[in-house]
Each structure stands twice: as structure tokens, then as C-alpha cells.
Amino acid sequence: MQTAADKLPMPDDLKRCVEFHGHICPGLVYGYRVAKEAMELMDLRRATDEEVVAICENDSCAVDALQVMLGTVAGKGNLIIKDFGKNAYTVLNRSRRQAYRFSRKTNYEYKGKDKSTFDRLEAAFAAGQASEDERRELRRLKVDDLLTRPFGDIFVTTEVPFEEPLYAQLDRSEPCAFCGEMTMAAKMVKLSNGRLACIPCSQKS
Questions:
Q1: pLDDT tens digits, 180-193
Q2: Is the residue at 152 inside a domain?
Q3: Residues 110, 53: one domain?
Q4: How do residues 4-16 score in pLDDT, each as one tens digit?
Q5: CB 3.0–4.6 Å: which of 41, 70, 96, 99 could bond 92 by disulfide?
Q6: Are residues 198 and 147 in the same domain?
């Protein structure tokens, strides 16, 4: 059975996002479009270290596209998630000291050529009556629409003051006084008796 990804002609960079995320979906495309726009606005390349930072105001599928496209990942400390449930993303360029925030404009409204088909599928989905094939086709229509629309139809772009985030914290590890597990010293809690505990053990004690 063909999937939505099989039917869509995709650029190589979007294919990499799909391979990382596991499937194509509207959420992933939102992140892909934001990353492409940020790269063009600030002349960005994929970060090898922490030269690019992404601040995401949700933990949706879009975040995965930002990781692939911009090289902003939790392990390097240049992916910051503030889960406010908002479809908004701020991308920072440390070298240029620039930052742009991208926020989704409104509820999604289909603008493609298959409006009658979309409306029928959307109604079936909302009523909980859509088959698996119908849900797949609905997703394909949304993805195709989002990939071809002008970016400004989907997101509001705002240049915001550059407030440089801290670089990823580095510190030695120490054993917790209770569980003995090695823990970053800066994340440990000093108890009244002077012993150092990891956060979970400090809460128990």
C-alpha cells in the first residue's frame, strides 16, 4: 500500500526529516518550512556545534524537522523546549546576533485545488468515520498544501531582540550520597548536613 510519503515528490532535505521522524505529516512540514525560512533569512547552515539555537514553544513533530535541518539538538544544548503548547519557534544565529520568531497564524485552512475532496475527508475524520485510507489521503492533501503555499500564509515572521542563551553546561560528575549514581555536580542538591544528593534522592529525603 502506498503511503503519503510515496505519493509526494519531496526534496532530499525533507526526505531526511521524514527518515528521522518516521513518517511525513503536517507537523513535520511546519518545522521544515520554519527551518528553511530561518536558513534563508539568516544565511544559516546546519550547526555543527551551538552556533544556531532553536527555542520551541511546543514539543510537536515540527521539532524533529528543526533538529535535522538546523542541527539543533538536546545533546548539544542548542535545542530549548518551552512547552507552552504554542505553534511558535525562535531561531537564533549567534555569529550574526540575530533572532527570528515564527508563529503560526490561524487554524489550518486548506487552500489546495481538491477542496471538495478535502472537505469530505475532513468531515469524515471529524465524525470519527474516516477509514485508514481516507485519513492517509487527508494527511497527504494537507502536506501537499503546506509545502506549496507561501510561507507568509502560514507563519508570522518577527525579528526579535537577540538574547544569547547560555552554552551547554559542562561540569564534573559526583556520586549521589544516597543512590551512588554519578550525577553532574551542578545539578546536585546540597543538603543541610552538607551531603550532595541527586534531585530525585533529595526530594525523597
A1: 999 988 889 999 88
A2: yes
A3: yes
A4: 444 557 899 999 9
A5: 99
A6: no
